Amino acid sequence: MTRIILFFLFPLLFLPSLSTAQGPAGQAGFVQYFQERNRQVSELWQKGDFHQAVEILEELLAHKELRDSESPWQATLYNLACGYSLLNQKEQALGHLRNAVEAGYAGLDQVQRDTDLDNIRDTRGSISLLTSTTKPPSVPRSARGSLGTEFSS
To answer: 26-47 and 50-61 are packed helices; what angle lies between their axes, rounded to 10 degrees?
Structure first.
């Protein structure tokens, strides 16, 4: 349970980087919205409602304010990879994990241990391939796409 809570609270550590983003409701509005949606995702995750949790994470990923903040962007991509893996949607999971690593997600040791990703461990383009580099390539924000769901084999 502690791991689940930390997993979803991790992006909240980087909310100062969101504070410079301007959303429809202003700086504080988006931060509050982001916090509330992450709280909902955490509750859904604990209940095993991964479909709804993934929908919310995809919704968050579509926000420009989130795309403009590096660490919450990376964590949201990673959380989506875990959600899709738990839903046994392997290509979506690998695509989001690949995008998280390319965006600079630094928790590569977590990727190797995370049981939420067990469904994609032996898949073509698997985790071992994705995490074999010591420094992921840099991908410009403009090349990421709005949802980061592209998968190439």
So the answer is: 160
C-beta of residue 142 within 8 angstroms of C-beta of residue 89: no
What 3-state class would DSSP assign to 132? coil
pTM over 0.90: no
- What are the residue ranges spanned by the domains of the chain? 2-143
Nearest residue to 122 (alpha-carbon basis) of 85, 78, 148, 147: 85
**Along the 153 residues of the chain, how does pLDDT read in single tens digits?**
444 444 554 454 444 444 444 444 555 788 889 899 999 999 999 999 999 999 999 999 988 888 777 788 899 999 999 999 999 999 999 999 999 988 888 888 888 889 999 999 877 767 666 656 444 444 444 433 333 332 222
**Residue whose pair of structure tokens reads 């994705």 in the numeric block:** 130
Angle at 85 between CA 79 and CA 87, to 5 degrees: 105
